[in-house]
Specification:
The chain is an alpha+beta fold. It is built from three helices and five strands.
Length: 140
């Protein structure tokens, strides 16, 4: 029964490495600890299974709680849009209050985040957001 827990730990670790699902790592650790528990305390299969279940449940609750806190905490937020923060150069002022900016080898429409400012050709700005295909920029 001891080797069963170590084999299960290795199998779930392989699943974690293949899928990247962190919960498999928690299960692998629980099964590994259960293997040692079974070895040192000569626990019965029923007791070992109960121990593994409790460890797995505690680990999964801890990981879920940490993930929930990360999602709520705005300082841990990393934007998924890789364009945010990139620099652009103003190429042309358009009559409707928009600009053409040079970014990623082509021209994009962009709007300033502050309508009271006016950008000149050649000014540099950073992307702070998007509105459909229009970049929202801020002068640097």
């Amino acid at each position: 029964m001891i080797w069963f827990w170590f084999a299960l730990a290795i199998i779930t670790l392989i699943f974690e490495l293949a899928t990247g699902i962190f919960y498999f790592l928690v299960l692998s650790i629980a099964f590994f600890i259960t293997g040692f528990y079974t070895y040192f305390f000569e626990a019965s299969p029923a007791l070992s299974t109960t121990f593994a279940s409790l460890l797995a449940l505690i680990g999964l609750v801890i990981v879920a709680t940490i993930n929930k806190k990360k999602k709520k905490d705005p300082k841990n937020y990393t934007p998924q849009d890789l364009d945010i923060g990139q620099l652009v150069v103003i190429e042309e002022h358009l009559p409707n209050g928009l600009y053409y900016v040079h970014y990623r080898g082509t021209l994009w429409e962009a709007a300033l985040d502050d309508n009271t400012k006016i950008a000149a050709v050649g000014d540099k700005a950073s992307i702070i957001g998007k509105d459909a295909n229009t970049l929202i920029i801020q002068l640097t």
